[in-house]
């Protein structure tokens, strides 16, 4: 008994010890869990050291119980108002997303221990001012996004420690002035976005602190005037966006120093003339957008110094009414020229594009052209030109017949590889804009679709008819060219007939009364029988080609037209319609 009771005692002692140990272990485990929790609505991926607390977590503060070794922290669309020293524990942070919160200030030394941080997104908060030492300690930072805030001013040298920063986004703020020392320290900045602010001027030394800047977006500001030498330090600048800035005048040396500038956007400003004097021979601009400005006239040699120009956009200029015949002199390398949406532009000189030897795309859509002359494209054999002439009020008369043929050529150039393309689907017409044209060449699909969508506006019988689908006879050249022989023939005929009549009258004067009697009898008979029109066989006229100048040999043209009628894709329905159309008399003319 004693033995067994002592065994019992020993067993219970062991079990007590086991219980105590497990309790301690549990407490330890629980304790560690308590100090490292993943807040509700967050997604904590421990293996990758990522925590993602997006909108559903509705945080009001930065969670401080996350893994201190955290590398990426996503906190967008919460209700965080203050971030004071909240990141001191997360010393390994590389990526921090605080966009779309309610942060209104960043205190001095807020990121003092975060010298691994490379990306900070503070977009769409309520920042008004930035403390002078707000970004101290961030000596690996590469991207800083401060867009969509209410920043009114930036203290001098606030970025002075951000020597590694490459992208700074200050767009959509309320900045008015950038002092000379604002960008001190940003010696590796490549991309600066200060668009959508209220900036009225730069100072000459502002950009001397950002010597490797490649991309500057200053659009949607309030400059009114660009002064000499503002950009003189920006040797590497490649893209300069100054669109929508109310710019009315440019000093002659305002683009001085921009010897690598490739893309310049001056769209939607207040320029009353093309600022030719400011385009310096040293500028190597390849893409220029100068549309939506109120100039009424493009004067001679407007772009003369821009020898490297490849793409020129003059669109949405509602006051542009006249383009001088020498306007594009000197820019022989232009490949794409867009002159579209210029409602006041009714006429364009046939020789205006003569010197554009490299032209491959000419976009003349949505102007007010009733007519375009074939000479626009015949000079220097621009037969394969991509031509977009949609949305013009074309008068489809003989002068425009060449366009029918040119569009067929454009369409045919690519359609033979897939003739069924348009028959099996509804066509939607994509819209060109600067972005798409910068990024890609005009695709063959777009070429084909655009060729299909050019319509007549007048005469009434042809209104809204597709030019590419019109039979060549509808343009009236047939009529014009055959009317002179008809008149001459008719006159000869009249002469002969009247001669015969006179002879008859003279020779058969005695039988005249008998002739009249016979005639009356005949007419009565006709009236009694069922009268109907005589169907004379239509006279056959030889089609005289107007393309003889265009395609030197007439033999070619006949072959080409024949091939076209073989290759042009018609489905059964269309084919029948086409057939019927041809049997109708040409009353529409
Ligand atoms: C974070 O979570 C949200 C919602 O769960 C998700 O939409 C988002 O893609 C996540 N972000 C990252 C970087 O994983
Ligand atoms: C800014 O944040 C608000 C609230 O989260 C959101 O509705 C809005 O779309 C955001 N705007 C931008 C430009 O991100
Ligand atoms: C920042 O600039 C504002 C306005 O010029 C000035 O009032 C303020 O004292 C400056 N702050 C510091 C710390 O220099
Ligand atoms: C500012 O410019 C940069 C670079 O061009 C671009 O990535 C960014 O989206 C722009 N910011 C806004 C808010 O559009
Ligand atoms: C400049 O910024 C505006 C507005 O933020 C944007 O629409 C435009 O695409 C940007 N330009 C370039 C060249 O990135
Ligand atoms: C700018 O031009 C110079 C000389 O033409 C060239 O060496 C340099 O690489 C260019 N910079 C850029 C960013 O293209
Ligand atoms: C043109 O600029 C004005 C003034 O900056 C702006 O309000 C307008 O939205 C711009 N228009 C376009 C089409 O960019
Ligand atoms: C021309 O104006 C239209 C309508 O205002 C606009 O949608 C289009 O983007 C503008 N084109 C350019 C190149 O600015
Ligand atoms: C021409 O105008 C139409 C209708 O206003 C528009 O849809 C189209 O985008 C414009 N084309 C160009 C090239 O701007
Ligand atoms: C065709 O119409 C245009 C514009 O209405 C006119 O200038 C031209 O002289 C006409 N051509 C012929 C051959 O009638
Ligand atoms: C149509 O395409 C064929 C084959 O590509 C070509 O031989 C023919 O000349 C073209 N016709 C016209 C009118 O361009
Ligand atoms: C094309 O459009 C017509 C009428 O708008 C519609 O009935 C037909 O289903 C469309 N076809 C296709 C392939 O989308």
UniProtKB/TrEMBL annotation:
The keyword Nucleotidyltransferase belongs to this UniProt entry's keyword annotation: no
Naturally occurring in which organism (per UniProt): Dermatophagoides farinae
The protein's name: Uncharacterized protein
Annotated InterPro entries: Dev_Immune_Receptor, Leu-rich_rpt, Leu-rich_rpt_typical-subtyp, LRR_dom_sf
Membrane-crossing segments per the record: 483-506
Classification via Pfam families: LRR_8
Superkingdom, taxonomy of origin: Eukaryota
UniProt xrefs under PROSITE patterns: LRR
Keywords: Leucine-rich repeat, Membrane, Repeat, Signal, Transmembrane, Transmembrane helix
